[in-house]
Design goal:
Blueprint: H1 24-29, H2 35-52, H3 54-66, H4 72-120, H5 124-129, H6 132-145, H7 147-174, H8 176-183, H9 186-221, H10 224-232, H11 236-259, H12 262-288, H13 296-337, E1 359-366, E2 377-384, E3 389-394, H14 400-405, E4 415-420, E5 423-424, H15 430-436, E6 437-441, H16 451-456, H17 464-473, H18 477-482, H19 500-514, E7 518-522, H20 530-544, E8 548-552, E9 564-569, E10 572-577, H21 579-585, H22 588-596, H23 604-608
Parallel strand pairs: 3-8, 3-9, 6-7, 7-8
Antiparallel strand pairs: 1-2, 1-4, 4-5, 9-10
Helix pairs in contact: 2-4, 2-7, 3-4, 3-13, 4-6, 4-7, 6-9, 6-13, 7-8, 7-13, 9-11, 9-12, 9-13, 12-13, 17-19, 19-20
Transmembrane segments: 38-62, 74-92, 164-192, 265-283
GO molecular function, one term: ATP binding
Biased composition (Basic and acidic residues): 1-17
């Protein structure tokens, strides 16, 4: 019995309730490893801000001193100083961009690897509940959407803030009265930008969810399996219509996100652009009244500084909006990083240097639903001596696959324990479990890579000779050798260039390379025709020789020679014994054989049944 494959949603009591905001200190903690580089950025930003406010003072000296007094030498020096400040400022900006972008990309890298590594530690249950497209969207779209924030926005925030402070100080030094007039509206502008930021954050959260839905649709419907299903079911047109509807919703959200608060922010820009004109107008009125409050040079220098103030001030307000928008993306990423690890390696995990392969199930209970810990398996007592074989049979949904998944800790028991060589598998290192236990299932997964790369996934350092030996043992070498590119042949998406039997034998060859002492065969031949099944079964017999083997049987004719056969019924061991013993009892096992007989008439075992 497998868990339902439903879409995972973050654990929330009320899905409509607003999520608590991400603490800013948690976002800032991402930059902590790069404190030294950030300090350099701060120095460059400060130096750039100081240099940028020098030019208006040079301009005032040009207008009030050098030109009126005809001092050409001083004029040349002042102009040269203005050019030099522009050059120095440009150099500082380039260096600042280089360092800040490097830091931002390292933070992006850290986030991507942290999410990927954390997901690698999740139990199989998480992935059976979660759409692959949702996971891909979190890593690609959400983290990618934060790129501007972590690479340039953070630096822009510091840079603009520093520029504003330096410029205000310089403006006060020129004339404090004009400075007060210039700053009167800034608190109102800050309040408006905060409102806009909250609005965009909400829309961004909706947009990323829709982007995840779209990614899932693409991943599912445009895979090889999805294309086959869509065309054979005549659903290609309806899938296109559904995708069009989803894409249309995303387009609407993109427009809403782009236009949220756009008019309000533009009004701020218009008002700030009008401020210099207001300053000139006020100065003109006072001059006409015969009482100019400032000199022409001071006025021009002040307006120049005012322009320098408004540019970073508007940028600062926009940056604040972008930061609030990005917090929605950080929230989605932290949701994944905060997922509890259901199956983890204990701090004092045991490493077994050598594994004999004895497996025991001691009063094992298991359920996918935490509220029903015995919902799938209850009171399982089994012992598989090292080197022996156990076949598990039963009706669909009796718990056969669930039983096998407990041995490599794909799931953890909810009661009792499973031991390997007398040690609870929950106490073993993951390295010991992966080295000791090999799994061959009916759902063979192959990467879109060459045959050799797929085989070496089990043993990266395997030699060509070892690949050939494993392929020969799995009875697939001759077929691989007959291909134009041999072991360099691309297997295609999910191995679709190979037949079902060929993929199974490739999976068996991969497991042979791994050479595990314990082998789990989960209905490895159930989807094959009789002729292909015989070829695969021969490869399986070669693989199972001398190993502890647990076989989840679909066709009972393949398990007659098993040392033990366990019949599961509703999650419990209903019968246990050899093929002959169970046959003579005439119980559930015999009934299963009789049911299979019409499909496989002529086999000696079925005649006995």
């Amino acid at each position: 019995m497998r868990p339902d494959r439903t879409t995972w949603t973050p654990p929330e009591r009320d899905p409509d309730a607003p999520r608590p905001p991400v603490p800013l200190r948690r976002v800032l903690a991402l930059f902590r490893p790069y404190r030294g580089r950030l300090a350099l950025v701060g120095v460059l930003v400060g130096a750039s801000a100081v240099v940028s406010v020098v030019t208006p003072f040079l301009l005032r000296a040009v207008l009030d001193v050098a030109i009126p007094q005809g001092r050409t030498g001083l004029l040349s020096l002042l102009v040269l100083g203005m050019v030099a400040t522009a050059v120095v400022n440009s150099v500082f900006n380039v260096l600042q961009t280089l360092v800040s972008t490097t830091v931002g990309q390292r933070v992006m890298h850290d986030l991507r690897t942290a999410v990927y590594t954390h997901l690698q530690r999740q139990s199989l249950a998480f992935f059976t509940r979660t759409r692959t497209g949702e996971v891909q969207s979190r890593i690609a779209n959400d983290i990618g959407g934060m790129q501007s924030t972590v690479t340039s926005t953070a630096t822009s925030l510091v840079s603009n803030l520093t520029s504003v402070v330096a410029t205000v100080v310089a403006m006060v030094a020129l004339d404090w009265r004009l400075t007060v007039v210039s700053l009167l509206l800034l608190p109102v502008f800050a309040w408006i930008s905060r409102r806009v930021g909250r609005e965009r954050r909400k829309i961004t959260s909706e947009r990323q969810k829709q982007l995840a839905v779209l990614s899932s649709a693409v991943q599912e419907s445009l895979s090889v399996s999805g294309i086959l299903l869509g065309r054979t079911m005549g659903r290609s047109d309806s899938l296109s219509r559904e995708f069009t509807e989803q894409s249309d919703q995303l387009a609407d959200l993109e427009v809403r996100s782009s236009m949220a608060g756009r008019w309000r922010m533009n009004v701020i820009g218009i008002v700030m652009s009008a401020m210099p004109a207001a300053i000139y107008w006020a100065a003109g009125l006072t001059s006409a009244a015969g009482a100019p409050i400032v000199s022409i040079g001071t006025l021009v220098a002040f307006v120049s500084l005012q322009q320098q103030l408004f540019r970073p001030a508007v940028s600062l307000l926009s940056t604040g909006v972008e930061v609030q928008t990005s917090m929605a993306l950080f929230q989605r990423i932290f949701e994944y990083l905060d997922l509890p690890v259901e199956i983890d390696e204990p701090a004092d995990a045991v490493h077994l240097p050598a594994v004999r392969g004895e497996v025991r199930f001691e009063r094992v209970d298991f359920g996918y639903d935490p509220e029903r810990p015995t919902g799938t398996l209850a009171g399982i007592e089994l012992t598989i001596p090292a080197g022996s074989s156990l076949a598990v049979v039963g009706e669909t949904g009796s718990g056969k696959t669930s039983l096998s998944y407990l041995v490599p800790r794909l799931y953890d028991v909810t009661g009792g324990r499973v031991t390997l060589d007398g040690t609870d598998v929950r106490a073993l290192t993951f390295e010991t479990l992966s080295r000791a236990i090999g799994v061959v299932s009916q759902e063979t997964y192959l990467f879109h890579a060459s045959v050799a790369e797929n085989l070496r996934f089990a043993k990266p350092d395997a030699t060509d000779e070892q690949l050939v030996a494993a392929a020969r043992a799995a009875q697939i070498h001759e077929h691989i050798a007959s291909l134009p590119d041999g072991y360099d042949t691309l297997v295609g998406e999910r191995g679709y260039r190979f037949s079902g039997g060929e993929k199974q034998r490739l999976a068996i060859a991969r497991t042979i390379l791994r050479n595990p002492p314990v082998l789990i065969l989960d209905e490895a031949t159930s989807a094959l025709d009789n002729q292909t099944e015989r070829a695969v079964q021969q490869a399986i017999d070669t693989l199972a020789a001398g190993r502890t083997t647990i076989t989840i049987a679909h066709r009972l004719s393949t398990i007659r020679e098993a040392d033990q056969i366990a019949v599961l019924e509703r999650g419990r061991v209903a019968e246990l014994g050899t093929h002959q013993e169970l046959l003579e009892r005439g119980g559930r096992y015999a009934a299963l054989l009789r049911r299979e007989a019409p499909a496989r008439a002529g086999e000696p075992v079925l005649a006995q049944a």
